Amino acid sequence: MATDNANASGFGEVSRLRGVVFEYLSLGASVIGLVALGVLLVYVTIDAFDLANASPEWLLTYFLTLVVPFLAFCLYSVSDPAVTRRSLAALGGGLVAVAALFTAIETFLVAIPRLSWQLAYLFVVAMPVTAYLTYVGSRGRVGAVGFGLVGRLVGGIAIGLALGTLFLVFDPLVWFLAYTLGVVPAAALYAYGRWRSADRASTAAVPVGLLGVVAAVFLRGVVTTYPSDLIIYIWTLAVPIAVAGERVVADRSSRIAAAAVGGVPLAVAIAGGFLAGGLGVPGPTALLVLVTVGVPTAVYVHRTIDEGDGVVGLALPVLLVGGALVGALVVEAWGVPAPDPWLDVGYVTEAPSSTAVEAGLYPAIVGSVIIIALVAVLSFVLGVGTSVFLEEYMPESGVLGSLTRLLQVNIANLAAIPSVVYGLLGLGLFANLLGFGLGTAVTASLTLSLLILPITIISAQEAIRSVPDDLRRGSDAMGATRWQTTKNVVLPEAFPGILTGTILALGRAIGETAPLIMIGAATTVFSAPDSLFSRFSAMPMQIYAWANYPQAEFRYGVVAAGVITLLIILIGMNGTAILLRNRAERGT
Amino acid sequence: MSNTETSDSLITTDVETGSNEQTAAPDRTAVAARDLNVYYGDEQAIDDVSMEIPENRVTALIGPSGCGKSTFLRCINRMNDMIEVCRVEGDIEFGGKNVYDADVDPVALRRKIGMVFQKPNPFPKSIRDNVAYGLKIQGYDGDVDERVEESLKGAALWDEVKDQLGSSGLDLSGGQQQRLCIARAIAPDPEVVLMDEPTSALDPVAASKIEDLIDDLAEEYTVIIVTHNMQQAARISDRTAVFLTGGRLVEYDDTTKIFEDPEEQRVEDYITGKFG
Fold first, then answer.
1. What is the rounded CA–CA span in Å between residue A261 and residue A49?
2. Domain region containing B97
3. Which of A209, A383, B79, B201 is least buried, going by the fewest C-beta atoms within 10 A?
4. Does A480 touch chain B (CB under 8 A)?
5. Tell me, what's the pLDDT at A462?
6. Bridge pairing between strands B29-40 and B86-94
7. Does some domain include residue B261?
């Protein structure tokens, strides 16, 4: 047989044509939406930052001072000659290819509006290469340290600002009383219980805390003298954050290091809080941002230096800020014409205006952040509650089983109801019947919560259903009650999935306009809401209003800046939730 | 809840042995079934089974697939309650009480009876939290760490995991996971440990470790084990019950008697592999 092999010339060929065609069709289907969205985002970015008016010299300056050092940092972190070679080839080859293609299209086909070939190179080649190198760079130890530090800086600023925003509507005096009477005694009891392993003290912590919070609400009007807002924030937020940082370090290092990690940022933040007024920045905001940035950063820097691995990465923020400063200096010194971005500090800190140059988004940003915070809490609580009940408590057969299926079908249908209808519901139920008022933040939050509730419920149900039955049976067989099984086994295991669904749903809520119009939200308000029952505007409403203005500056520049702001806040919010989820996944 | 009060005084009265031939059992009885019938919808899974399971002995339940041995096991701690179509008639006596009495709380009952499943199912928690799970939900007020250590030693796992109690139970190998599940089951100090084919998902080395362990466990606990592996039943059990198709208990006797000189031809055929 071996000498007389019929297959000596091979085994023939099997056609893969249809499979290959299908593969490329699938690829096309998956990128077409991304490409369309990418083109839109490129133009929105160009408009928001006025890049169409950026001179090539300006672009080159910042490319050399900011992008090139960053790429060098990533390549240093990867330290792989092959990646370096490939990246340089992509950057160089891309330059030639984009310039040639762009010139060809402009010459032979159509003029491309508001896009020079230098900008096109930036978006089509430089940005993807940077993103790729950021990704592979973060795998290296140095890159991981650098991005970890930058993440803590940016995240700290965001959390500090978000906290400050929430205290615009939530009474800091109530919080002060609740913290002093509820949170502190409860935490102290719990810590004492853990320390002396006295379970009774730990168990008492929750009721004591609740009692303190209730007492705070009643005492709010009774107590007449309060410390200043700045003192309240120092006592209720800055000190506990600093103590938390101190505890983290104390677990693995000396007392002096721990005290320094907690104390130095706290001292800087307090000093910043008192001095900020002179610079025109609100003291409490400066304090919160400084403490939410300072403490996590100090903990991180301490740990990195302690471990002694990838310490060079700590230079990344210096590199970026230094690059931006050098770029600005060069631009200033050489007199290079610079673009005038619509999205600047004034845009996010000032009220809307009838002139495009002075228009700001601040009240709408505050409105959106407050609404989203409320919606997140409401829809999470209601959604998880409903899904746990449907999945864990309702029987699958019998009369109740039929009822479960009926509920199930109805929830699925609710997800398909147009948002305008939810707006009507909000108008009738919350604004009129329950008297929460037309166009108030609380009416909007309740309406949007109802709107995304079906999505939250369905995704949470999926997550709960995907918890293996083995685990439930294991817990049941230990003599756990249904509640104990749900709390200890099912929910921790389902938590990442539940969070994913909530993130997606919140993304939808933050961009809704139709229900907000129905409940009578204002398109434009000139001051940030100062309570849950004050009138507010949300970012999509304000953007929609501007898009209808007759002046072209509004329709292009201001709207584009609004879209970018909305996207940045959305990404920041989702990023936080994704970080939380990843942490939960790693924990299991 | 009343069974928790009386469970320390286990029943010792002689019970009618039903249709099965049985030698005189010198041991005290831990669990006794009387005229037990179990139905899944219209299908009968257990047909009129009566048997007494002695205390501090290993009792093996063997038989072909679908013969009702796992169903019988799950009747003892009322895990069948979770299956909505399941209906149980007859008595299971444990701790001087019929566990199917109206005043028995199945959750309280399960706290007296540990269970180990076919597939290792550690919780996605740390090793320590896995073992401490039963203590936590039962509100154990002694030294939890001490009890965790005792249980892990009892499950012959302590030496392998003592330095990594904080790492996830899922990081262990299959055999270690199953021993972790055994440690979890014995941590609240139950009276009976039920095992539903505990070694069928494991390799032979891991399985033999579990077998050795079961031997030791019988000194403190009453072990009832369902197995498909005839040699395993012969090696580790003191008493063997043979179930055959239709949920009938065909023969129940000392293991040596069952494997050397069974009364019933069908049992001999099954054990020697001629059928089943």
1. 38
2. 1-56+64-109+238-276
3. B201
4. yes
5. 93
6. antiparallel
7. yes
CATH code for position B72: 3.40.50.300
Report chain B residues whose CB lies below 8 A from the CB of A395: 84
Q: How far is A204 from chain B (nearest CA, A)?
A: 15
Q: B119 lies in a domain? A: no
Nearest residue to B99 via CA among B31, B154, B157, B46: B31
* Rg, Å, chain A Cα set: 28
The pLDDT assigned to A8 comes to 64
Select from B65, B20, B56 the least CA-distant residue to B249.
Answer: B20
Question: Do A353 and A359 touch, CB atoms closer than 8 A?
Answer: yes
Supply the pLDDT for residue A464: 94
| Phi, psi (deg, nearest 5) at residue A370 | -65, -45
What is this model's ipTM? 0.83
pLDDT lower than 70: segments of chain A: 1-9, 197-199, 586-588
Domain boundaries, chain A: 16-48, 156-344, 362-587
Q: Which residues of B touch A484 (CB under 8 A)?
A: 137
Please write the tens of the pLDDT for every residue from B209-245: 889 889 888 888 999 999 988 888 999 999 999 998 8
Question: A 140-199 residues with CB below 8 A of B?
Answer: 199
**Closest Cα partner for B74 from B30, B103, B21, B33?**
B33
The H or E element spanning position B223 is: strand B222-226
**For chain A, what's the residue count?**
588
Using an 8 Å CB-CB cutoff, list chain B residues near A402: none
In the numeric block, the tokens 């600005």 are attached to A328
Distance from CA of B82 to the nearest CA of A (A): 9
- Any domain includes B13: yes
A475 shares contact with chain B (CB less than 8 Å): yes
Q: Which tokens in the block code for residue A45?
A: 């970015």
- Per-residue confidence (pLDDT) for residue A460, from 0 to 100: 93
Number of residues that make up chain B: 276
Structure tokens belonging to residue A118: 């230098």
The torsion region of residue A332 among left (phi > 0), alpha (psi -120 to 50) and beta comes to alpha
pLDDT recorded at residue B3: 43
Q: Are A445 and A374 in contact (CB under 8 A)?
A: yes
Q: So what's the pLDDT on residue B9?
A: 39
Residues of B with CB under 8 A from a CB of A: 77, 79, 82, 84-85, 107-112, 114-115, 117, 119, 121-125, 133-134, 136-138, 141, 168, 181, 184-185, 188
Nearest Cα residue to A446 out of A509, A384, A404, A525: A509
Residue B14 lies in a domain: yes
pLDDT at residue A486 in the model: 92
Contact of A499 with A463, CB cutoff 8 Å? no
Beta-carbon neighbour count of residue A216 at 10 Å? 22
pLDDT at A26: 93
Predicted pLDDT of residue A7 = 62
Helix or strand run (H / E) with residue A398: helix A398-414
CA angle (A121, A124, A130) in 5-degree steps: 95
Contact A473 B188 (CB under 8 A): no
pTM for this one? Answer: 0.80
Find the helix or strand (DSSP H, E) in which B127 lies: helix B127-137
User: If you measure CA to CA, which chain A residue comes closest to B85?
Assistant: A397
Which architecture does CATH list for A362-587? Orthogonal Bundle (1.10)
Tally of domains in chain B: 1
Residue ranges, chain B, pLDDT below 50: 1-25
Is B188's CB within 8 Å of A479's CB?
A: yes
Q: What is the DSSP string of A119-142?
A: HHHIIIIIHHHHHHHHHHHHHSHH
